[in-house]
Amino acid sequence: MHKLIERLIARIPLPFRVLLNQFLLRVVDLEALSIEADVPRFLGQFAGVLIMISCMRAIGALFFPPPPDMEWNLELSALSNMLLVVGLIGVITWDATFPDRRDVMALGHLPVKSRTILLAKLTASGALVGLAITTLNFASGFAWALVFGAGSLLQSLHFLAAFWFTIVAASTFLFAAVLAFQGFAALLLSRRKVLQVSAVAQLLAFALFMSVYFLEPSLGLRGQLVDPANRALLTWSPVYWFLGLLNQLNGSLPRELTWLAVRAWIGLAVALASAAAALLLCYLRTMKKTVEEPDLVPGAGGLHWTPGFGNSLRSAVLNFSVRSLIRSRQHRVLFAFYWSIAMAIALSCVRTELSGEAPGAMTVDYLTSTFMIMTIAVFGLRNVCALPISLNANWVLRVTQLRPTIAYLAATRGVFLLLGAAPALTLSVLLALRYRPWEQVGAHLALLALLGWTFVEIAMIGFEKVPFTCSYLPGKANVQVVFWGAVFVLALLSVTVALYEHRVLSNGWSVAGMLVALAAASAVLWGTNRHRAKSALLYFEEPIPEIITTLGLSIGMRCETSKPNSQSAER
Q1: What separation in angstroms does the CA of 517 have from each of 425, 444, 458, 501?
Q2: Contacts of 221 (CB under 8 A, 6+ apart)
Q3: What is the pLDDT of residue 42?
Q4: Is the confidence at residue 260, as pLDDT, over 70?
C-alpha cells in the first residue's frame, strides 16, 4: 500500500509537488496567526478544537437522542456551523489563492506555467477547508447517521452519504463564492484599487458571516419552512438551500420544498463556474499587476484631509495607526479576529434581547457581554499594535524622535482609547438603547467607560513604543494560547462583576462608590505610567534573550575524573 501511494505521488508533476509543499506552509499568515512559526502545529491545534466540538455533538446525539421533529433543526445547525467555519477560513486566507509579489518575482523567471501555480495554490487552500470539513463533522456525522437511521443499516448509510455530500457541497459553494468575488475584483479594478477594496471587504466579510450566523432566524420545523411568510428568507439564505438538498438526497424532502434543493444545485454550479473563470482570467491577465505597486501605496493627487487629534504628534501617530490597520493584511486579519469575537458576543446579546419586550430592565447577560467586549477590544488592539508594519516605518520614526518619550507614549495612549475603548463603548451604548431606567443605564455606561480607561492604562504597562513600529521575534504572536488561556478567566471575571453590579445597580450610593473606586484606580495607573514615561526610552527592536548554550562537557569530565578516584578506593 505504501509503495502504491509513492507511485501515485511520483506521477504528479514535480513542479506542482514543490509548489504545493511551499504553499501549504503559507496558506495561513504566520505574521498574524503564529505558533512559533510552525504551520503544522497551528493546523494541529485548529483541528483539535474542531474535533473536540464534533465529539461533544456526537456524544450529545448518542446519549440524548433528539425527537423526530428536531431532525431538521440539527441538520440546520450543522450546516450553519460549517458555513461559518468555511467563511472565516476564506477571510483568514484572504488573497492566499492569488499570486502575490513574492510569487511573481520568484516564479516569473522560472519555466513554471501559470496554471501549475494556480492549481498548487488552490489545492493548498482547499486542503485547509477539507481539514475543517473532516474534523468538524467526522464524529457527529456518524452519530447522527446512527440515530436518524432508525436502526436500519441501509438508512444510516443513505443518510451518511447524503450528509457528507451536502456538507462538502455547501462548503465548496461558499468558498468558491469568496474566491469569485476576489477574482472579479482583481479583473475589474486596478491593482491599487484592489488593495484598497480588499481592506474594507475583508472586514465586511467578517461582519457578514458573524451577523448571518447569529441573527438569522432558525426555521427548523417543516411547518415553518412551508409557511409562505418565510419564503423571502428561504429564497436568499443558502443554508436553507442546502438543507433542502440534504433532505432531497435523503428522500425526506416534501414536494413543496423542492425549489430549495433546485436553488442549491444552481448556486453551487454558478459559484464553481464563477470562481473557475475568475481564477483563470486573473492568473492569465493580472499577475503582472502585483509588482506594479507596493502594498502601502502613496496617496494620489487631489484634495486630502487628515483629521487632527490634539497636537501634531498625536495626529501623526493616530493616522499612522489607522492606515496601518486598513492597508496591512496581517494587521487586518488579527484585528478582525479579535473584533469578530466581540461582535459575536454583541450579536448573541442582541438576538436574545430582540425576542423580548422593549424597553426592559438591564440583564446580567447584557452586563457580561459589555464587559467582555471592552476587554477584548482593548487588549486585542494592544496585541495587534505589537506587530510591526514595516522596517521603513521603524527607521523613519526612530530617526525623527525629536520629542521626549512621554509625548510618544501619550499618543500611544490616545490610539488605545480611540481605536479600542471608544468603539467598544459606542457598541455598548447602541445595545443599551433597549434598557431602562436611564439612570441605571447611564451608571453602567459610566462604569464601562472608566473600566475601558483602566484597561488602557494596564495595556500601557511595558508598552514603551509607538504602535506598529517595534520589530519582534518570529513566533511570539501566539494568538491561540492567549485566546484559550484568557477566555475562561475572562468569562469568569465578567460574570462575577456583572452579577455584583446587577445586584447593587439600584442602590445609588453603591454605584457611586464603584465609580469612585474605579476612577481612583484609573488615576493611580495613569500617574504611574506617566511617571515611568518621563525616564523611559522608546525601543524599536525586540531584545533577543541571552541564552548560554552548553555542550554538556562538564558533566562528562566530572564522570571521567571520578573514575580513577573510585578505582584507587577499591585498591
Answers
A1: 20, 14, 16, 14
A2: 69, 72, 73
A3: 62
A4: yes
Per residue, what are the HEC states of 413-432?
A: HHHHHHHHHHHHHHHHHHHH
**128, exposed or middle or buried, with CB in 10 Å at 0-12, 13-18, 19+?**
buried
Which amino acid belongs to residue 170?
Answer: A
Q: Is the pLDDT of residue 368 over 60?
A: yes
Q: Taking residues 511-530, report their average pLDDT.
A: 93
Burial class of 459 by CB neighbour count within 10 A (0 to 12, 13 to 18, 19+): buried
Q: Which three cell numbers stand for residue 485?
A: 488561556
Residues 305, 307, 313, 316, CA torsion sign: negative
Q: Contact, 278 vs 187, CB < 8 A?
A: yes
23, 35, 349, 456, 458 from 490: Cα distances, Å: 36, 22, 17, 16, 15
Note the Cα 358 to chain centre separation in Å: 32
pLDDT digits (tens, 9 = 90+) for 292-322: 555 544 555 444 566 667 778 888 888 888 8
Average pLDDT of the chain?
Answer: 79
- Alpha-carbon torsion angle 376, 391, 39, 12, nearest 10: 140
Please count the other Cβ atoms lying within 10 Å of the Cβ belonging to residue 323.
Answer: 16
What are the two backbone dihedrals, phi and then psi, of residue 541, each rounded to the nearest 5 degrees? Answer: -140, 135
